[in-house]
């Protein structure tokens, strides 16, 4: 049996097709993505613009064309921040049903965090020590405190890279005052997280999202230039390596970032804001390294489907 998962994110629509094996595990056949940019132009006004509707349709059509090349038995679509927070989010869901006959499940932030945890735990060894999982999306960022016993605390904050980009509209390169503005925004929005973190000793920050994937790819280009990152599901990044790349981001324009080795062109606008967010958390937690994980919501969704939890 083959299952397709479509994760309708704020920036990117992600597709994963997996083959379910006899022991109820799965093998990933293909992963691909399309830059829908559903939040562009309207995310902070709680709307999906007509142009974003069309980009979303184009992304779904591309993924459906890919799905046709496989023997997929079922398609599961999950929508996150851009659709759940938009006043016309249901209109998009209805339009997709009419146009493609696809049923989109709009999940709340708490469920999104749960799925991310169920994805990450398949890759990252989680022991008795507590870790903090961070997933930076376009519209929201999920934080999960967990250990081997499971999720201890989770929350979804309406503070994603696309939302910050629209709000700050940074210069190229960013000015010191703009960076400070972003840090203040993060500090204000995450107050309940910081109160919770006072109760826990966090030993590792695990990042799961396209931003962390891009940073890991770019760090490895310098540190391990011959490493095939496509064969890895996690990668350890030292604070020194991250800070060096972060400094490059802060002092670059979009055009300059486009030329950087292993830069994802779809993240070139938002990667600086994501990097500021990550550095803020690294400093807050006094960590000297972080772990990148390629598994997140899609893999968590398959896990829950196979275990009859979704």
Topology:
Elements (H helix, E strand, L loop, with lengths): L1 E7 L4 E8 L5 E9 L15 H18 L4 E8 L1 H5 L3 H12 L3 E3 L2 H12 L9 E7 L4 E7 L2 E8 L3 H8 L7 H14 L1 H7 L4 E6 L2 H14 L10 E5 H12 L3 H5 L12 H15 L3 E5 L3 H10 L4
Parallel strand pairs: 1-4, 4-5, 6-9, 9-11
Antiparallel strand pairs: 1-2, 2-3, 6-7, 7-8, 10-11
Question: How would you summarize what this structure contains?
Answer:
With about 300 residues, the chain is of the alpha/beta class. About 45% of the residues lie in helices and about 25% in strands. A hairpin with a 2-residue loop joins strand 7 and strand 8.
Q: How would you characterize this protein structure?
A:
By secondary structure, the chain is an alpha/beta fold. It has two domains: 2-106, 2-Layer Sandwich (Nucleotidyltransferase, domain 5); 124-297, Nucleotidyltransferase, domain 5. The chain is built from twelve helices and eleven strands. It has helices spanning 50-67, 81-85, 89-100, 109-120, 161-168, 176-189, 191-197, 210-223, 239-250, 254-258, 271-285, 297-306, and strands at residues 2-8, 13-20, 26-34, 72-79, 104-106, 130-136, 141-147, 150-157, 202-207, 234-238, 289-293. Strands 8-7-6-9-11-10 form a six-stranded mixed sheet, with helices on both faces. Strands 3-2-1-4-5 form a five-stranded mixed sheet. A hairpin with a 4-residue loop joins strand 6 (130-136) and strand 7. Helix 6 (176-189) packs across helix 11 (271-285) and helix 9 runs antiparallel to helix 11. The longest helix has 18 residues, at 50-67. It is globular and about 50 Å long. It starts with a strand and ends with a helix. The model has no long low-confidence stretch (mean pLDDT 96).
